[in-house]
C-alpha cells in the first residue's frame, strides 16, 4: 500500500508507477499533482484502490483500466 494523500505533492505521476508490481492500494488524494493520467497504471494488475481526487490530473482513463481484475 502507498498512501501519500494530503502531502502537498506537486508535479506529475511518473510513468514508472507501472513498475510497482504488487501494489494493491494507491492513494494520492488532496495534493497538487498535475499532468496527464499515466497509462502505465494499467500495469498494476493487483491494484484494488486508486484515489486521485482533488488534484489537477488531466486526460481520460485508459480503456484497459476497465478490465483490471481488482479495480
SSE topology:
Blueprint: E1 2-3, E2 10-11, E3 25-27, E4 32-36, E5 49-51, E6 56-58
Parallel strand pairs: 1-3, 2-4, 3-5, 4-6
Model description:
The protein is an all-beta fold and 71 residues long. The protein has strands at 2-3, 10-11, 25-27, 32-36, 49-51, 56-58. The radius of gyration is 11 Å and the shape is globular. Helix content is 0%, strand content 25%. It starts with a strand and ends in a 13-residue tail after the last strand. It contains no helices and six strands. A three-stranded parallel beta sheet has the order 1-3-5, with no helix packed on it.
Which features does this protein show?
globular, mainly beta, three-stranded parallel beta sheet, single chain, 25% strand, 71 residues, 0% helix, 6 strands
Structural class: mainly beta
Largest sheet properties: 3 strands, parallel
Global morphology: globular
Tally of DSSP helical segments: 0
Provide the succession of SSEs: EEEEEE
Give the strand order, joined by hyphens, for the main sheet: 1-3-5
Spans with pLDDT under 50 lasting ≥5 residues? Answer: none
The proportion of strand residues reads 25-35%
Summarize the structure.
By secondary structure, this protein is mostly beta strands.
